[in-house]
Every structure is written in C-alpha cells, then in structure tokens.
Amino acid sequence: MANDYTMQELMVVAGSREIRDNDVVFVGMRLPLLAFQLAKSTHAPHAIGIFENGILRDKPASGPLYTMGDNPNIEGAIWTTSMMDIMSLLQNGRVSLGFIGGAEVDCFGNLNTTYIGGRENLRVRLPGSGGGSDIASLSKRLVILMNHEKRRFLKRVSYLTSPGYGDGGNWRERNGLRGGGPCAVITTKGILRFDSETKEMVLNSVHPGVIVEEVLENTNWDLKVASKIEKTRPPTRSELRIIRKFDPYGFWTKLSER
Predict the structure, then answer these.
(1) For the chain, where are the E strands, in sequence order?
(2) How many Cβ atoms sit within 10 Å of the Cβ of residue 50?
(3) Tell me: the pLDDT tens digits for 74-95?
(4) Active-site residue, from 9, 18, 52, 239
(5) Is 52 assigned a catalytic role?
(6) What's the pLDDT tens digit per position in 194-216?
(7) Phi and psi for 115 in degrees, rounded to 5?
C-alpha cells in the first residue's frame, strides 16, 4: 500500500504485534495506549490490559484516550482499584508483557529516565522511574518504544533507572530479577532485538524508507546487525482505520505530518 502513514503509526502497529492473545499487558502511556487498543481489536481479543492508575480491562476503550485516567478507559473496566493492587499483579508475576520508554537506552536495553549526564555531570533532571523500574524488572517480556536518535542510543546510559540486561549475559539472574527482560526495542527507524547469549542489542528490521546505515549513524555504539535484515511490515488499511478511530486528531500519531 502507499506510504500514507506516520512513523508513529508504524510504531503503534509494531508494538501491537508484540501482544499475544491471552497476554496480561502493562499498557503504559502514549503509543502503548493505541497499541493495546489495536491488538484487542484485531489479533489478541483475549489480552488483558492493566494500567498503573488502577484500571484493568478486557475490551478496548470506547473512545480516544489522552491519559489512562480518561472516562472511556474507566467505563466498562472490569476492575477499578488502587495503584497498589495493580502493582501487586506485577509483583506476583502476572504480567506477561510490559511497555516502557526512556530518554536514553544502551546496548543492553537499560533505560535512563532520571539524570541526563548522571549525578556527577547532571545536565537535565528528568521525572524518574514512576513504575518503570518495576515494569522492567518484573514483566516476563518487555517492549521499549522510543525515538531513534544518537543522543538517546548510548553504549552505556549515564544513569540506570530501569534495568534491561545490565552488563549482559546472565546479569538479570545474578541480580535476582524475575522478569525476562527486553524482547524488542521499537523505534522510529527499525526494530531491535537481543542476542540470546550476550543480551546485546541487534538490529533486526528496518522500517520502509529507512536503510541500515541510517540506523547505525544514529546509534552511539557499534551496533550489531542481524545476518538477515527484515523490512518492517507496514500497517494495513484496516490497522490504520482502527488507529485513527482511537486517535482521530493525531494527538499521539501526528496525523498532520502525513
């Protein structure tokens, strides 16, 4: 089909494809709100969505969401409760997939949302973890969504807020983290996954219109590339219709850029 979608819409579709039927998904804000709605409306009707503010639902919201606390997310929910109850599901190992983002990510999928430059050379103070560290530590699978820029993709983050694979290998097991760690990093340029042994990030797929060299130029380390690079499957017309139903003004997906 014609390339009549934004990269944000492509990221939503790629994120939704990581959701399996029967997954319990810690949804998060921004693009994951749409990814969950899309998956529920298509290939994962039995997925359950949980939201940090205390909402659990088993069907798509009735309308667009700008925050997880909007009325369409509360209406029809099967449980509206406290943040503590929702986080306890994560701590009990019930969450099979979590979505998260960050200001910086490194080659082992560690995220920084606290200090740009680290504490010693602080340049910017960010909001911090929120529930990010819990999601990264305890979800059975983790999907990271973020813009692909050289200043964000560092060999090592300047401050570790939410753990990926630490310094690689069996770091998570050595540090007692029960969650499985990142399975995908979905960016504005491609999809990256992780080597099963070293746990280092590997470029797996480039988006339509993007070449491998462009991804490498926007990554601040010697990024490894899969032996067979895939092309990310573009959104279908049906997927775009659903996304635009839940984001009619392009609040999250910047429709005005088309």
Answers:
(1) 24-26, 48-51, 55-57, 79-80, 97-100, 104-106, 111-112, 115-116, 124-125, 142-146, 153-154, 182-187, 190-194, 201-206, 224-231
(2) 25
(3) 999 999 999 999 999 999 999 9
(4) 52
(5) yes
(6) 999 999 999 999 999 999 999 99
(7) -125, 115
